[in-house]
Amino acid sequence: MKQMNKRAQAAMEFLMTYGWAILVVLIAIGALAYFGVLNPNKFLPQSCTLSPGLSCIDFAVYSDGVVIKIANGMGSDLNSLEVGVENCMTASMGINYIGNLPNGKGDTYMMFCQLTAGSRFKEDIFINYIKDDGSLVHEKVGTIIAKVENMPKAAEYVCKNAHDADNANSLDVFCGALNNTYNGNPDFLTEFCEPFNYCT
pLDDT (tens digit, 9 = 90+) per residue, 114-133? Predict the structure, then answer.
């Protein structure tokens, strides 16, 4: 009987000694999870990978779309080039060369998406083109992984980039041709361009 009492006492002492420490650790972990410190999105590696010959110079995912800078290292000019991102509403022909990408040059492509700020974004990138010395359509596939930044900057960025480059043609495409293609929205010009004073 005395031996059982000693064991019970030892068990109680163990719980009293280490139980509080375990409880404090559990509370701390719960608090960190509650405030998002342990959110895996905070540690999400950001990357943009394309097939050999094309490279992602820079990229960003905003709450209103995806912006990617792509450089051509294929050894040939690319024509009829379009860049799209899975689950985004529009493809892009670029804002400087508009459908063409000379060898050794880069351009910026924007695809509209309605995204939730702070969420994890992982989608495929599709690039269709025809080589300057050919007639067949080719497709390259890549992947973009990023955290959605809490700012609707995609449309403003593209307008400003074209405006700064004094590229009226790309502004015409961005503010005119897309007017009837963005999600069937006839107010594209008003909604995305005029607020930045680039298309008035």
Answer: 888 888 999 999 999 999 88
pTM, to two decimals: 0.65
Closest listed residue to residue 155, CA positions, set 123, 199, 96: 199
Amino acid at 98: I
180 CB-side CA count, 13 A: 1
CB 74 within 8 A of CB 116: no
Taking residues 20-32, report their average pLDDT. 75
126-164 burial: b if 16+ Cβ within 10 Å, else e: ebebbbeeeeeeeebebebbbbbbeeebbbbbbbebbbe
CATH code where residue 190 lies: 2.60.40.1940
Which residues constitute the domain of residue 190?
42-196
Are 18 and 59 found together in one domain?
Answer: no
Q: Are 125 and 111 in contact (CB under 8 A)?
A: no
Interatomic CA distance for residues 35 and 168, integer angstroms: 47
